[in-house]
């Protein structure tokens, strides 16, 4: 970066500089007269940004990468074209300019020290107004970007909570949400039921029909669950061929009715729509549990798991309810 002239000695005009548009041009020209005009070669970065200064692009183009030295760089790169400026904020808060400014082509910049910018703000309403407009525009753009990022972040957060094969919620979602559901049930004195579902002899199913058919069977079972539940209920893929249904505000009697309905619909589920293929079918064993006073999420899962184990033990393709309720 080398100085090639001063503003007064150059052919650039005040009117072409955004910050001084519609302001007192004579005052601006006088104030900027001795400011250096520097030249950057393509790929060269602005050096010595430790002092607060304003850089106005006179020709060429700058790429500006935000906050490179604080470790806060978020990949945002903006392009600054002739007439536009960088560094207003560092001038206003008298901090070093943390952006990395690099010439995208051979470029000429006007370098204005902070004291000169402040003097211009003091003496010219036009400059003050332009600066406010510019900052307001930047704040709006930054807010819009923040909102876009939040939406994107939320989208990815949601995606990370969904099981790719079945479209049901996954274990990460369950770990996040079940403790909250348990706390809210205890807090509100409302019931909460859980049905644990495990496809029967699924290893055999895979071995007989292939792993892809197994995947298809898991999707079919998941569809049964999603299609049979109320909007407030949630279906989760708990592990390989194990699924779970959470029924807020539902007592054990109703949960058993729901589980019986799911058991029947899984039995009836069509795994393949293609009638040329043989029609393997699936069955499931289901364990039902309802939240007991003082029980936590692990306890609730363990109760449903124990009931499921008994359903397997009792011959599969059936619903069993937790022992503690009826013994
Ligand atoms: N196709 C497919 N199979 C899976 C998936 N996840 C787990 N499995 C299979 O599910 C089978 C589970 O087998 P086991 O735990 O022995 O249980 P099971 O054969 O269903 O026997 P029971 O539960 O006692 O009725 C294993 O063969 C796993 O490979 C999956 O995403 N796709």
TrEMBL record:
CDD domains, alphabetized: CAP_ED, GGDEF
UniProt xrefs under SUPFAM superfamilies: cAMP-binding domain-like (SSF51206), Nucleotide cyclase (SSF55073)
EC identifiers of the protein: 2.7.7.65
Ranges where the Cyclic nucleotide-binding domain occurs: 54-138
Enzyme class: transferase
Pfam families: cNMP_binding (PF00027), GGDEF (PF00990)
Coiled coil: none
Catalytic activity: 2 GTP = 3',3'-c-di-GMP + 2 diphosphate
Protein name in the entry: diguanylate cyclase
């Amino acid at each position: 970066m080398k100085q090639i002239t001063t503003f007064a000695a150059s052919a650039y005009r005040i009117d072409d500089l955004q910050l001084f548009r519609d302001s007192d041009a004579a005052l601006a020209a006088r104030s900027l007269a001795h400011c250096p005009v520097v030249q950057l070669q393509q790929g060269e970065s602005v050096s010595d940004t430790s002092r607060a200064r304003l850089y106005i692009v006179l020709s060429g183009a700058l790429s500006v990468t935000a906050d490179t030295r604080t470790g806060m760089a978020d990949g945002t790169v903006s392009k600054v074209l002739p007439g536009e400026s960088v560094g207003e904020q560092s001038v206003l808060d008298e901090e070093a300019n943390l952006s990395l400014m690099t010439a995208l082509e051979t470029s000429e910049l006007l370098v204005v020290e902070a004291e000169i910018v402040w003097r211009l703000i003091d003496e010219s309403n036009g400059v003050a107004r332009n600066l406010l407009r510019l900052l307001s525009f930047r704040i709006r753009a930054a807010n819009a970007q923040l909102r876009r990022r939040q939406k994107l972040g939320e989208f990815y957060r949601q995606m990370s909570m969904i099981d790719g094969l079945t479209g049901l919620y996954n274990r990460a979602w369950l770990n996040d949400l079940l403790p909250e559901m348990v706390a809210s049930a205890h807090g509100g004195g409302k019931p909460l039921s859980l049905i644990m579902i495990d496809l029967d002899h699924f290893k055999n199913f895979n071995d007989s029909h292939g792993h892809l058919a197994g995947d298809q069977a898991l999707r079919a079972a998941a569809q049964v669950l999603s299609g049979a539940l109320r909007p407030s209920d949630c279906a989760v893929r708990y592990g390989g061929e194990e699924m779970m249904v959470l029924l807020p505000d539902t007592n054990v009697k109703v949960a058993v009715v729901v589980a019986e309905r799911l058991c029947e619909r899984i039995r009836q589920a069509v795994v393949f729509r293609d009638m040329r293929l043989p029609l393997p079918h699936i069955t499931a064993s289901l364990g039902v549990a309802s939240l007991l006073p003082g029980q936590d999420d692990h306890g609730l899962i363990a109760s449903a798991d124990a009931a499921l184990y008994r359903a397997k033990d009792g011959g599969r393709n059936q619903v069993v309810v937790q022992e503690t309720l009826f013994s």
